[in-house]
Amino acid sequence: MWQQVGDEEQHLQEPWYHGKVVGGRTKAEELLQQHSHLGDGTFLVRLSENFVGDHTLSFWHQGKASHCRIRTRQDGDTTRYWLRDNDAFESLHALVEHYRTYPIRAQDVSVVLDAAVPQPNSHERMEWYHANLSREEAEDYLGRIQEDGAFLVRPSGESGSISISFRAEGCTKHCRVKQEDQLFTIGTATFDSLVDLVRYYERNFLFRHVKLRYPVTERVMQGLLEQDQIGVSQPGGYVTYISNIHVKAKYSYTAKMPDELTFPKHAIIQNVNKAERDWWKGDYGGLKQHWFPAIYVEEIEAENIDERGGDSQVLGSLQKCLDLRGAEATVDRFPGNNRWGIKFIIRLTAPTLPQVLEVGCTSEQEAKEWKEKINSTASVDDGTQTRQQRETELRIKKELSDLVVYFRCVPFDAEKCFTYGGCHNEISSFPEHKMESHIQKNPCGLLKFHKVGFSRVYPRSTRVDSSNYNPVPMWNHGCQMVSLNYQTGDKAMQLNEGLFLQNGRCGYVLRPECQHDPNYDPSNLETLPTTHPISLSVKIFGCRHLSKPGRGCISPLVEVELIGCEYDSGQKYTTKAVHDNGLNPVWCNNLIFHVYNPECCLIRFVVYDEDVFREPNQIGQATYPVTCIRDGYRSVPLKNAYSEEIELASLLIHLKKNSDDDYQTLLRLRAQILEMLDASKRKQDEEKVTILERKLSTLDIDIQRYKAN
C-alpha cells in the first residue's frame, strides 16, 4: 500500500535530506569529508542551526565544504524556497532538482549538485523497516502474503548485519546485508545506504526473477491481524473456494455468457464446485470459478491426473495439446514492427478451438514448415494413426534382437514373480514409479523375485531435465541394474559413484547377506537377521582450499548424512557456517551415528557455501560405503558434483567405528549421548536435543533387546 506524499513533504523521502543534524555545521563537514570521493557537487540539506524554519545546503567543492542558507517566506498559502532573491521555488525538492541541472554561482564558486550524502541510518524512517521484528514474526507475516516480491527489512540476529525478508517462489527467504563503516554490502555489491540498496533492487532482480515490489508496512501488518480476527485469509473478507474435484471435458464448449468457461474436448477443469444440478463452477484457462454445463464433462479422480499425464505425456502435467482433426492453418505476413522480431503469423482454425489461434514466427520458412505439418497431421484419420502405432510397437529389429544373448526381455507378471520368484535368463524393465509402487506394496516379494530374476529400473519419461531418482531403495530391494542419467551431476549420481567405490568402480557389487534371508524386509528393523550394528563417531575439524566459481568469499558449512535402509536413513547433521573463510575454516564438531545395517548404508559428506539468502550451494562432496571407511584421522578428498576430485580441497575428520556387540559398548555409548544431551540443554539447542533424545530412545530399545537375548 503506497502512501501519497505531497510536494511540500517530498524532500522527506530523499536521501540528501538530513533534517536536524546533531553537531550542526561541524558534523555536516565531517560527512562531506567522508564522502569526498564522490567528487565536487556532493551535498546534503539540513535544518538551519541559527534561523528557525530555514535550511542549509552544504556541498563539497575544490577540496573543502561550503554552506548556503536556503531562505523561506510565505506567499499566501504557499511556502517559497530560494537561494537568490530572483529564484524562488514552491518546494525544497524543486529547488534541489533545479541546482542539479543548473550551477550555483557565487564569488568563487560555480558548482552543480551531484551525488547526495546518504543519511546515517536513514532506513530507520522508511515504511518497510521494522526495528523490533524477529525472523519468526517476519516469516509469519510474509507467509500470509502470496505475491512474490513482498518484503520487509529488519535487524539481523548477527551484530553488524541487517536482514531483508521477502517472498519468492512461494516461500519466505532471508538475505543478510553487512554493515561496515557506513557502507552496506550484499554479496559483492556495495551501497552507501540501505535506502539505496532497496531502491536498486526495486528496479533489478534480487533473487532469480524476483524484485522487491511490495513493502510490508505497519498498515499492511495491521490489516493482516484484522483478517485473523474476522477469520479470513484473503483481502476484503472473501475466502477462495478450494476443491479436490476435477472433471474432464467430453465435448468442446463455447461460452455464451461472460461468466462461463470456454474449453475444448479433453480439457481438465479443476477446483470444481457443484453449485447447481445442471451447471457447475470451475477453474480453467486462467478463469476462476466460472460456470459450465455439467453434462459436457465427466468426473475423474484427482490422483489419476498425474498418472494419465505420466508416461503417455513426456512433460506430464505441464504438457498441453490441441485436437487438430479438421484443423486448417494459413500463413500471413505480420503488419508493422515489433520487439520480438515476428514477421509472419500462423492462423489456426479448428472445430475444437473456441477462436482462431495465432502463433508468431520470425521467418517465412519456419512458418510454412509448421503450416505443412499441421495440415498433414489434420488430414490423417484415426484408423491410420492407430494402425501405424500398432506396427511401430510390434516391429523388432532382428540385428538388435541378435545382440541379446544373456537375457530375454519379458513383461513383469507381479502375481507370478512374487509367488514363484524370477527366472535366471529373463529380465523385466520398470520405470522408477512402477518399481517404487512394488517396493511399497510387496517388499518381501520383490526380494524373492530378485534372488534369481533380474530387473532394470530407468528414469520415468517426465524427467525431461535429465534429473535422477533416489537409487538406494532399489538397491536395498535387490534391483541389479539401476539406470541413471549420467550426464547430470546430482545427489543420486554421487550415491551411485560412492556405492561402486567398494569394487574399484567395475563389475558388480555383491548383494548384502541380509537380503538372502526369506523373512527380511528392508523397511522393518525387526526382520533384520543377526548382523553387526555399529556406532559411528565422527569429529569434523575443518576444511582447506575451498573455492567456488565467480567472485566473492565463501561461507562454508558441512553436512554429514547417512543414507541406507529406512531405519538408518534420515540421520543428518549440519554445522554452522564459518563466514568468509574458504581457506581454512574450523568447526571441531562431534557427531555420533547409530547404524543398524552397515552393509546397506552410505555416509555422505557435503560442503556448502551459504549465500546472502542463507541458501546452501554445494561446492564439494564425498560419498563412501560405511563398510569401507577406516578409523583414525582422515583427510577426505572433496569432489565436485560429477564426482571429479577438486584440486587441494579436502575435509579433515576423525572416525571411529565401535561394534555394538558388546553390552558394555552400548552402555558407554549411552553415557556419551547423555553427556551431549546435557550440554545441548544448557546451550538451549532445541534441534540437537530432539535428535539426541531420539537416538537415546533407539539405543534403549537395543539395550533391552541385548538383555533379552
UniProtKB/TrEMBL annotation:
Domain SH2 intervals: 16-117, 128-216
Record-level GO cellular component terms: ruffle membrane
GO BP term (any one): phosphatidylinositol metabolic process
Highest taxon listed in the record's lineage: Eukaryota
Enzymatic reactions: a 1,2-diacyl-sn-glycero-3-phospho-(1D-myo-inositol-4,5-bisphosphate) + H2O = 1D-myo-inositol 1,4,5-trisphosphate + a 1,2-diacyl-sn-glycerol + H(+)
Protein keywords: Calcium, Hydrolase, Lipid degradation, Lipid metabolism, Phosphoprotein, Repeat, SH2 domain, SH3 domain, Transducer
Principal EC category: hydrolase
Pfam family, one: SH3_1
Domain SH3: from-to ranges: 242-302
Domain PI-PLC Y-box: 400-513
Required cofactor names: Ca(2+)
Gene3D superfamilies xrefs: C2 domain, Phosphatidylinositol (PI) phosphodiesterase, SH2 domain, SH3 Domains
Protein name stated in the entry: Phosphoinositide phospholipase C
